[in-house]
Amino acid sequence: MSEExxxxxxxxxxxxxxxxxxxxxxxxxxxYKGELVGIMGMNGAGKTTLIRTLNGLIRPLKxxxxxxxxxxxxxxxxxxxxxxxxxxQNPYHQVFSNTVEEEIKFSLKSLNLSKEEIQNRTNDVLNRxxxxxxxxxxxxxxxxxxxxxxxxxxxxxxxxxxxxxxxPTLGQDAKEIDFFxxxxxxxxxxxxxxxxxxxxxxxxxxxxxxxxxxxxxNIIADGPTARVLTNEFLVNKSSLILPQIRQLNxxxxxxxxxxxxxxxxxxxxxxxxxxYLKNKSTKV
Amino acid sequence: MSLEFLQAFKFQKKNTLVHNFDPRAKLLCAxxxxxSGLLFVDILPLLLIFLSLIPLIILGRMVKEWIKSIRGLSFxxxxxxxxxxxxxxxxxxxxMILRICIMITAFSIFFLTxxxxxxALSLISMKVPYPYAFSFxxxxxxxxxxxxxxxxxxxxxxxxxxxxxxxGLINQIKNLFPLLVPLIICSIKRAFNVAEALESRxxxxxxxxxxxxxxxxxxxxxxxxxxxxxxLIVVIFVxxxxxxxxEWLHFILPV
Lengths: 284, 255
Prior knowledge:
The structure holds 2 protein chains of 2 kinds. By secondary structure, chain A is α/β, with parallel strands linked by helices. Chain A has helices at 47-54, 77-80, 100-108, 115-128, 144-156, 174-189, 201-207, 225-228, 232-237, 244-254, 266-283, and strands at 8-16, 22-31, 36-41, 62-67, 70-71, 84-87, 162-166, 193-197, 210-215, 218-224. Chain A folds into 2 domains: 8-241, Rossmann fold (3-Layer(aba) Sandwich), CATH 3.40.50; 243-284, no CATH class. Chain A is built from 11 helices and 10 strands. Chain A has a 6-stranded mixed β-sheet, sandwiched between helices. The longest helix of chain A is centred in the last third of the chain and has 18 residues, at 266-283. Chain B has helices spanning 17-20, 23-39, 43-59, 63-71, 74-87, 90-113, 116-125, 130-141, 143-158, 169-174, 177-200, 219-240. The chains are: A alpha/beta, B mainly alpha.
């Protein structure tokens, strides 16, 4: 992987908001094609600011951002957004069209596609997101979860190389989270790069292999999620709490049940406890 | 595009003479200056009125914010210059720009130096019913919030290929829909949420309210009010007698 050029290269990036809030301090970051990366940290740590620098919504005051080897400094947002699609927290910030179908087509308008291609992509994405039955309906009449799906669909139809999600699991029920996990896994398998800003530590430990931890505009840790989010010092520094599985692991060890430290997912813990209880009952 | 200029109407806590004036005196100031601005269509009287506002801006330590509010008007200023110069004259265009600058400056001084709660209290002291006074102050309290929301909407739309700059007036107007529709929807949603939050805390359940803070008209407020009345009388006198005023006051540009 180290031989390969990163698809996202953030080099010495600094950013301070006009109200003098320092959001990013000397950020250096490499993300490779096909990676699924989580960005975590307390509120105000600089997570959302960092993803906004990736498509030029925020221009760093110092340093550079390279997407697919190209410096985006002189590129306009329209051009960068073909490669980097950011999906924001509040889906109501973007819906405005008369129908769900038109809402999708609006996203495709700037890609200079033929009418046929626009229609094909619209049908395809409506189908993938189970929104076909709502295509003639006003986006304002959809439920919260469906509106969030529509917001996702309107970026997915553009087929960017990099997806950046800001709090995608916020206010979503278990089924909707499942749908989202399947979606990102499929995109990852297609070689797409995925960045997820989240506060949901359980979601991160289950589904995200690499985590970047931020605090006060700095990256304080970058590594395998299982290692970063089970480090008590780092977790406390980021105002997070240890994942429930990790807490259970510690409690079991305190009770004298030797639970291996590397168990960090629900399935691994279920497997361990089932075996442990089976062995125990056999001994009795 | 940045909506930073809306921040120029956001109250900023500072300890200055202007901040310490009673909100009613500052509201009177905004009204007197707006009336004065509306009385003239000549450059020099308007310029003098405008210049008389500058000491207040300096005393209130709000030069930066004021410049932002004027900069936010640059599109409108450009439009006034083009339309008035084309249909009337450049002198008239400059006079109209000065008139708008006077009004914006006067109200900008008021909003930058008056806390929304004090604004409500001043309205109540003028016998405006509490629910109306509260709604009015709440509306101003939400201006910066709406500015932030508008910026988020712009960012969300730009992330899916929306382009701010379009050629042609009709295209530019059409181009506003992706921004205005979500902004209106989010504002209505927020209004309902705020109303529910207020009702759940028994807003309006009783007519007799007491207030933790009270506002008082002090000597400095009376002195400021007297100055404003003198200014208004002088301005009205000059306007009535404008025909017999010295020639230099009627100055117009040679073009």
